[in-house]
Amino acid sequence: MAREKELTMTTILPRKDVVIVGLGWTGSILAHELTDQGLDVLAIERGPWRDTATDFNIGYAQDELRYSVRRDLFLQPAVETLTMRNDPSQTALPMRDFGSFLPGNGVGGAGVHWNGHTWRFWDSDFQIKTNLTKRYGAARIADLQVEDWGVTGAEMEPYYDQFEYLAGISGKAGNIKGKLQDGGNPFEDPRARDYPNPPMEMTYAPTLFANVGRSMGLHPFPTPSANMSRTYVNPLGITMGQCTYCGFCERFGCANYSKSSAQTTILPVLMKKANFEVRTDSEVLHVDLAAGGKSARGVTYVDTSGQEFFQPADLVLLCAYGLHNARLMMLSGIGKIYDPVTGEGTVGRNYCYQTNAGAQVFFDDKNFNPFIAAGALGQTIDDFNGDAFDHSGLDFVGGAGINCIPTNGRPIGTRPTLPGTPKWGSAWKKATVAGYKSTLGFSSQGSSYATRTNYLDLDPTYKDRFGRPLMRMTFDFPDNDIRMSNYLCDRMEEIAKASGGKQYNVARRKKGWDSVPYQSTHNTGGAIMGTDPKRSAVNSFLQSWDVPNVFVIGASAFPQNAGKNPTGTVGALAFRAADAIRTQYLRNPGAPLVQA
Amino acid sequence: MDRHNTVRLSRRLFLSSVAMFTMTATSASFARSLSGSLPWVPLSSDPPTQVVPGGWQFFTPQEAALVEAIVDRIIPADDLSMGGKEAGCAVYIDRQLMGAFGTSSRLYTKGPFLPGLPTQGYQGEANPAQRYRAGLAAIDAFLKQRDGKTFAELQPADQDAFLTAMEAGKVELPNGVKAAGFFGLLLQNTMEGFFADPVYGGNKDMVSWRMLGFPGARYDYRDHVSKHNQAYPRPPVSIEGSPEWLVKRS
């Protein structure tokens, strides 16, 4: 059908060296790097142009209903959604509204409305299968489908550094070239130098949490934050302003140039380049492959009037949200779609998420001023994250960061009350007033490890507005991850008890992933990186094994997810892919960088 | 390539000029090509429009009386705050039902519509506007049949008992209306109206924000970050401004 349309009504445009699908974090990084290389780069973005003064205006950005509840800046399900089910025996139904996760839309992507927690994964995360097998034996991970990434922590270090300096991360190093640093994370891998900015000023809740943690012999440290602790000029010469702790971060654009995003760190430079162009409000329908399916000719996209265009390009970079990268591959015939029965196929394989749980401590005599906050302002305890602790006597692998990062006091969504409080009436109101300022909250952000039956493919029934199949998500929390989360909840309960409140509550993670309440927009996998083309969709430079002039950049490349936010690793992988394209691929365009 | 020329008009001017030719434009933005500079057009921001109380846009007078009585039990007047009716929660819901929320225009509304698992979320075909119309009529019919009265005519204790039964799904409302589901929608929207910025018609005089001590749309707390465990001294502000700036409401 697409071919017939092409003959009759598709306008063919002049070719470009590079076409990028999606202008968020990864698209902007790749566009900047490849235009510096002298290439003619076009980005095609499904959503609108967005910039600080016009779209995150300081006169009305602090609007919880509009941006957090009605989600003005997010992808609307009418444009694209997914179907979901918990296991392959069920019939998947469309997520008619997004809930558990909220994909972004428009220039800047989800980087516009993230909180800004910016982590490095560890070498033990990248070489997970090798490490866990060596340390605990192959039987321990027999129920899982964990895979090595094909990179080491040391190989990733310079690219993490590049992203952290681009984005002006505020934090405290825990390990510089092997030397442990007081006040930082003692469990992190060695880094070449400290963060570009010092930690943010701490509010009361994380200060109290850190004191309790330290008194228990744990190692709290300031969460690495993409909210500026001071005015910062990044390596591109772009200035950001000091964060004002307004508490409108996640789900909001920053009106104050204080949160790193493509808008505040790259676009002011990128947009001035004559060899860069972005076409907004234009949705790529698929990548067009040459006869034989071994190379891409360009992409077909449609604009808001419904007019279809063919954009030829030598190099195609999929830089959409990870889930949308995987779907575009499926719709374009790049690689084979994963089949959980045979285990064959790579696209859609190893979809993972995040295994979170939460704790609350209620006080009578404390005022935390919850509205004085920033998206990534807080303290983290990594003593039980990843493989930082010995799992020998335990019945699971993986772990979680324990985070006290009170991001806001916005009252439609943030009204902690004692367990058992009615949801309305005078008793509700009294409890709401009592709990608003005096509740300490923290949470465990847990790893999510792949299994055979957690995967993505195309839905047989439900279609998008162009008649293309929606992607189908089949997911539930693996038993391993539930056991991990329960162990972390026991640790949180110990912290909660030691905090000295009048009462505490730990909300444990249960089987039966629910797509309705918000949990995390850390959807990973579906086009994973690796060293074996039978078990991964892209090589360690994020180049498609099947169509080598296509690179697929994003959290889609994660073989499984760690107990950390993904953006730091996504940014580092983007810089690594850009480096590989500049220094290796362009010498011999179209050739695989790694021999299968 | 002409169609890719940068739109140089402001989005609003452009939209209004398009609207003169066609009423079918549903998208707020149009394809643009941008290169060579950061695009900038004056007056291209998009602030919210202030809801002006007075009259009903979605509800009939009977429906409005019922919703006002319900929001006044969900958020009763007491020594902590005025009630939901006086705070404008019904006005808020009325205006929301006239917009994108009421028609689910942003959501995925293609069939087939099948009963789902709880983990799959709302799978009904009806949008919120339709659910309010059917749900309010069902409450009215049920109570007239059972008590010979409207909800507003019941004693507060009886109103609370009825809402409690709805919340628990222990009321069989007519026409297939699911009591617990509809109560959940009412509760969600009432809370939104009570706690949202007053620009949307509820939270009159920032009553809920004063009650909680939430300073509202303030943007700079740097002078108070390190003042741990100390009350924040300033009153709330709304997107509309502080009280003395408010337009006079009729």
The helical percent of chain B reads 25-40%
- Shape field of chain B: globular
Q: How is the main sheet of chain B built? A: none
CATH homology group of chain A: FAD/NAD(P)-binding domain
The radius of gyration over CA of chain B amounts to: 22 Å
Distance between the termini of chain A: 33 Å
Mean pLDDT across all amino acids of chain B: 88
Task: Tally the beta strands of chain B.
Answer: 1
Which regions of chain B contain 5 or more consecutive residues with pLDDT less than 50?
Answer: 1-28
What is the approximate shape of chain A? Answer: globular
Strand content bin of chain A: 15-25%
Query: CATH topology of chain A, which one?
Result: FAD/NAD(P)-binding domain
Strand content of chain B: under 5%
Q: Can you count the helices of chain A? A: 14
CATH architect. name of chain A: 3-Layer(bba) Sandwich
Rg calc of chain A: 23 Å
Distance between the termini of chain B: 51 Å
Q: What is the subunit arrangement here?
A: heterodimer
Low-confidence stretches of chain A: 1-7
- Summing up helix and strand content along with how strands pair, one would put the structural category of chain B as mainly alpha
Q: Domains counted in the coordinates of chain A: how many?
A: 1
Characteristic key phrases:
heterodimer; A: 596 residues; alpha/beta; FAD/NAD(P)-binding domain; eight-stranded mixed beta sheet; six-stranded antiparallel beta sheet; globular; disordered N terminus; B: 250 residues; mainly alpha
Question: What would you say this structure looks like, in words?
Answer:
The complex is a heterodimer of chains A (596) and B (250). By secondary structure, chain A is α/β, with parallel strands linked by helices. Helix content of chain A is 23%, strand content 18%. In chain A, the strands form five sheets. In chain A, strands 1, 2, 3, 11, 12, 13, 14 and 22 form an eight-stranded mixed β-sheet that branches. Chain A has a six-stranded antiparallel β-sheet with strand order 8-16-17-18-15-21, covered by helices on one side. The longest helix of chain A is centred in the C-terminal third of the chain and has 20 residues, at 479-498. The radius of gyration of chain A is 23 Å and the shape is globular. The longest helix of chain B has 20 residues, at 128-147. Helices cover 39% and strands 1% of the residues of chain B. With 250 residues, chain B is mainly α. Chain B folds into two domains: 1-46, no CATH class; 61-208, no CATH class. Chain B contains nine helices and one strand, in the order H-E-H-H-H-H-H-H-H-H. In chain B, helix 4 crosses helix 8 (179-195), helix 6 (128-147) packs across helix 8 (179-195) and helix 7 (156-167) packs across helix 8 (179-195). The chains are: A alpha/beta (596), B mainly alpha (250). At the A-B interface, helix 3, helix 4, strand 5, strand 11 and helix 12 of A face strand 1, helix 7, helix 8 and helix 9 of B.
